[in-house]
Amino acid sequence: MLVKQFKSGGIISINNVPHIIEKVDKHTPSARGAATIYKVRCRNLINQTKTDLTGKGEDNYQEPDFRQREVQYLYKEGDNYVFMDIEDFEQFPIDKNIVGDDKYYLVEDKEGIFALILEDRVVGLRLPDVVEQKLAECDPAIKGQSATNRGKSAKTETGLVVQVPEYMEQGDVIRIDTETGRFLGRVGTSF
Asked: What phi and psi values does residue 28 have, to the nearest 5 degrees?
């Protein structure tokens, strides 16, 4: 796979070890004829360490041989997150170190998640692009505020802190981009 084709959530092999792409920054130089540089943040799927790459768009990396299985998140038990395979209904735990910051996007019974399996071992998760969560903590709305005014911090039911418009209230359901952790919009109002 060429560096210019990298997307967050993609999997590449670095020194024969699978890494998940977490962030891609494209830097276009102002000089004519200069090559575009890509800065890539990856996470090693075996030991969870971060790796930073810098490369040109035509640099090539191999994709590791791994499988993906659709899973449903069920619940947290101790240091493990328990998932169920959608096809055979087998339940299995994934250690909190493998789940990492993805925990902020996991709501019980959440579907549309894929377990990344390498050599019969789950090494990571691929989340849906957008998730919906309820605001658990939020300062009260201020009368007369509109969507174009300043924002405020709010905490979702999973503990994720996001910036939301001032009119949002506790109990509102919002859409969140799982790549950036940014607020995308409101789904509903308080229950």
From this structure: -95, 120
